[in-house]
Amino acid sequence: MKLTFFGQSCFLIETLGKQLLIDPMISPNPMASGIDINALKPDYILLTHGHYDHVADAETIGKQAGSTVISSYEVAGWYEKKGLKAHGMNLGGKYKFPFGTVKYVQALHSSVLPDGSHGGPAGGFVLWNEEACIYIAGDTALTLDMQLIPKTCPKLDAAILPVGDNFTMGYEDALIASDLIECNRIIGCHFDTFPPIKIDHDLVTKAFKDQNKSIILPLIGEDIAI
Ligand code: NI
Ligand code: MN
After folding, report:
1. Please, which pLDDT band fits residue 45 given cuts at 50, 70 and 90?
2. pLDDT band for position 43 (50/70/90)?
């Protein structure tokens, strides 16, 4: 399983011959100006929730690539009305797609679509197949429900957690989250894009190292093999 970071919470996952794009907000992000969204042809677009910093390019990319949107029932339905293919889910449900199984799990956060439509619950995804099992937390506070992930899903190989604070948990809570989900290989997201979520990379990296955990704070365009 190969991940490529495109800024904020956007990752491209390549696995079993399929491309999955997570939470695309690329063209409005000056830090991601080097990424050409016209070159992206994902088979699926996974949206954790409806906030603009997660969905900004979903319609454009979805239409150009004929992608299927996977999200909450409400967010998926909103994209279906725009003419995209969509697969709606709700919290606690899992479904076997051609690239693996996806479970839509609890996030403690809000969700509204760019036009003010109700986005349903905010969520995260656990994705697993023969290659790996990965947790994509989405925007969330630290929540005790994270303890259910190791009880209900295969052992995690890695987890993408928000660490920018203010709108989501910060790195201190992400450290506790990594205990709850029983995963010490963390990939940070939702940092540095806006002034309130700028982080001190050395401080965050050291805090994880001090607890014998690893965190990658990826550069935009950086590839990570899971
Ligand atoms: Ni959000
Ligand atoms: Mn966000």
Report:
1. very high
2. very high
Which CATH number goes with the domain that contains 61? 3.60.15.10
How many domains does the structure of the chain reveal?
1
- On whether the CB atoms of residues 24 and 9 are closer than 8 A, the answer is no
Q: In angstroms, what is the span from residue 50 Cα to ligand 2's centroid?
A: 9
Q: What is the pLDDT of residue 104?
A: 98
Strand partners, 97: 100
Q: From the CA of 130, how far away is ligand 1's center (Å)?
A: 30
3-state SS class at 74: helix
User: Structural domain of residue 182, as residue ranges?
Assistant: 2-225
pTM of the full structure = 0.98
Cα–ligand 2 centroid distance for 11 (angstroms): 14
β 100-106/85-89 pair status: unpaired
Name the CA radius of gyration of the chain, rounded.
16
| Ligand at shortest distance from the CA of 110 | 1
Query: What is the distance in angstroms between the CA of the first residue and the CA of the last residue of the chain?
Result: 5
